[in-house]
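[step 3/7] inverse_fold.run input=structure_tokens len=503
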């Protein structure tokens, strides 16, 4: 069953959930000295290492690159003797199903007694709001059945089981050494905190929400604050964040932004590389996925490392060595001053796009220009744009808006205006998806361009998360509306490829 189910999810579900901002898996690598993960499209499997013992948590898809990625981490598949199973869905047991390659045929499985009823045919797994029954899963490995609250030991590793029914009837989560809680499909992390997992895939959503609340109560009563490690949306060590929305479920079909930092197509593994897997511990939380972020919590710095490199190169070009550090400090202080007016968290929530060529990079570049405008030429600013911002647009397929249709609309408008935007002109339709009466995709053929005669128009129309990179800046002051800073656009040339809107 696992081969067929795996292929179905890779093709059908990648199309179904594309652009939904639901899945945000971690790339292959070590979280810390004890925990590592392997990415299998939208899912993560985990390994807990202590001494000479390595325990596997969930077995993922029937995935043909599993052995390869485990070797990236220095883990031999044949060394795995113990596998903790949270539940029996194909993306969690595929590698131990009967039709799998047999990498872990000799491993002992630990699974909840209630969950085992699916495996022996006493119950059938139902998904998509109970509309579909999944085929029975067959597993030949030796099994040890577990009960709620059971505590056992594997080679000095303490494991405690918590029954959290709802997603499946016998779903288990595992607390290892009182420090790491592997939650499977119990928790889903959005940009604003944790929810009960995806509603369309649950056996009983109401029960799932109740189970999540009960899990929080148990942990809080014992004063436990573990790492919360999910199967599809990364991890966090923030207790309040993990249970921020414990009374709600993630609904995949609502027309709202779930997590803007989630990839457009989480089944695309192009950024999961051996080099990154071996680059050291990943200190990021699941909600801060981009490994290239340069984060200085003292001044809220979220620009990317390539952006910093570009700015420092220009500073080196124009200033003697004794002045460079002071100039760079001025740029950072200007950047921190600007962000402090509208950003209150310290790098936790991504309310703007960060990453190479994103909004934070644009802001950093503007701050650099504001500090160094007396010596920096306009052509040099264009060079930064060409090296940093424009490449990100070439890879951009859809721009996040408030709805899936809005993404399509904005991408199409961007494509249409790419070669037609002229001096002093901007596409009014670029802003319309943020208004109450957003146009339909059928209106794309009637796109109309309008002039913006003054900066007040820009402040009025600019959505909260819009960044305009202009080729001429006449002022650098935050807008009165408290959104992004607005610049005077009189006589400004606005290259279409430098327009980025993201929420």
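[step 3/7] decode complete -> sequence:
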């Amino acid at each position: 069953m696992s081969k067929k189910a795996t292929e179905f999810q890779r093709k059908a579900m990648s199309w179904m959930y594309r652009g939904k901002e639901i899945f945000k898996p971690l790339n292959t690598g070590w979280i810390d000295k004890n925990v590592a993960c392997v990415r299998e499209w939208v899912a993560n499997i985990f390994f807990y290492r202590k001494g000479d013992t390595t325990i596997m948590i969930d077995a993922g898809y029937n995935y043909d690159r599993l052995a390869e990625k485990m070797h990236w981490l220095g883990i031999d598949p044949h060394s795995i003797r113990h596998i903790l199973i949270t539940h029996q869905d194909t993306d969690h047991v595929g590698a131990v199903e009967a039709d799998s390659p047999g990498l872990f045929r000799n491993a002992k499985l630990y699974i909840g007694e209630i969950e085992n009823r699916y495996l022996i045919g006493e119950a059938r797994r139902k998904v998509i709001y109970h509309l579909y029954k999944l085929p029975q899963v067959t597993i030949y490995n030796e099994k040890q059945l577990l009960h709620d609250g059971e505590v056992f030991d594997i080679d000095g590793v303490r494991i405690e089981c918590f029954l959290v029914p709802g997603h499946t009837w016998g779903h288990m989560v595992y607390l290892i050494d009182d420090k790491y809680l592997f939650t499977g499909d119990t928790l889903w992390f959005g940009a604003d905190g944790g929810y009960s997992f995806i509603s369309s895939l649950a056996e009983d959503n109401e029960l799932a929400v109740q189970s999540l609340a009960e899990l929080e109560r148990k942990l809080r009563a014992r004063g436990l604050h573990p790492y919360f490690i999910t199967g599809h949306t990364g991890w966090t060590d923030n207790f309040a964040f993990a249970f921020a929305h414990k009374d709600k479920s993630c609904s995949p079909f609502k027309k709202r932004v779930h997590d803007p930092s989630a990839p457009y197509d989480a089944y695309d593994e192009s950024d999961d590389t051996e080099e990154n897997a071996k680059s050291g511990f990943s200190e990021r939380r699941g909600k801060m996925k981009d490994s290239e972020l340069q984060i200085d919590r003292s001044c809220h710095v979220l620009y990317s490392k390539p952006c910093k490199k570009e700015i420092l190169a220009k500073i080196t070009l124009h200033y003697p060595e004794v002045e460079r550090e002071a100039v760079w400090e001025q740029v950072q202080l200007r950047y921190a001053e600007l962000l402090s007016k509208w950003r209150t968290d310290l790098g936790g929530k991504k309310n703007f796009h960060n990453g190479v060529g994103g909004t934070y990079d644009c802001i950093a570049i503007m701050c650099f220009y504001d500090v160094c405008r007396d010596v920096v030429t306009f052509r040099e600013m264009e060079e930064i744009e060409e090296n940093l911002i424009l490449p990100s647009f070439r890879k951009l397929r859809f721009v996040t808006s408030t709805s899936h249709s809005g993404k399509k609309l904005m991408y199409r408008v961007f494509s249409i205006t790419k070669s037609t935007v002229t001096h002093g002109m901007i596409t009014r339709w670029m802003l319309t998806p943020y208004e109450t009466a957003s146009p339909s995709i059928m209106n794309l053929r009637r796109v109309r361009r309008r002039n913006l005669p003054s900066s007040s128009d820009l402040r009025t129309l600019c959505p909260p998360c819009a960044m305009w990179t202009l080729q001429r800046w006449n002022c650098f002051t935050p807008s009165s509306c408290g959104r992004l800073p607005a610049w005077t656009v009189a006589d400004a040339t606005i290259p279409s490829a430098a327009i980025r809107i993201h929420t």
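[step 4/7] annotate
Confidence is low (pLDDT under 50) at residues 284-300, 342-352, 397-403, 416-503.
Residues 2-259 form a domain with the Metallo-beta-lactamase; Chain A fold (CATH 3.60.15.10).
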